[in-house]
Amino acid sequence: MKVSVVKNILAANDRIAQENRELFDRNGVFAINLMSSPGAGKTSLLEAMGRDLGQRLRIAVIEGDIQSTLDAERVAAAGLLAVQIETAGACHLDANMVRSSLNDLDLAALDLLVVENVGNLVCPAEFTVGEHRKAMLLSVTEGEDKPLKYPLMFQESQALLISKIDLLPYVRCDLEKLKAAARTVNPGIRIFAVSTYTGEGLGEWHNWLLEQVGHP
Ligand SMILES: Nc1nc2c(ncn2[C@@H]2O[C@H](COP(=O)(O)OP(=O)(O)O)[C@@H](O)[C@H]2O)c(=O)[nH]1
Ligand SMILES: [Mg+2]
Asked: Ligand 1 in contact with 196 (CB < 6 A)?
């Protein structure tokens, strides 16, 4: 009984996600679902994207948080269009929440829509919201074993950003071990090692994004 209820919820979510995806395609918008634990650096990455890509791509962000509009304010200050969803306790965004927020965006005037999911390494990976790609961050302070302990998000994502690499001298994180763990659960995952503090690795990430937007 419980199993069939969960299946029904996921099937309903997938239907709405499909509709979102069709809406994105009709309007020529490329959509990314950006996920990570709280504090891995998603909003900082979006601020960097605003600075570096804002002139080349028309970018909007849907911010998912349990509470507050802080992240929407930060990305708006970085020059991006921003819509905030407060989930009131829910640990992830679902396709219906994203659909509701689309009314506040002029999709036809966008190239790229990034959905910053609620900070959580587990639940967001279970719900598609209509995105073309999933990307995730794991910071070097979280431990190189996390792909093996929380495999689903790594399996679902096409790109992994290993973030805060400026901290590598201060933490015991073996970058090669982390990459190997990620590839154990998802051999095809694209990996970028980045720091928004020093700018290292951001160029490669931005080039990949530009490539993806051009070929959805
Ligand atoms: N050392 C370092 N700290 C970072 C970096 N990127 C973000 N942070 C810090 O990590 C904290 C959380 O960042 P935020 O972007 O809010 O993460 P989010 O919760 O995933 O959106 C903030 O204090 C940031 O300044 C980075 O590249 N290096
Ligand atoms: Mg954030």
From this structure: yes
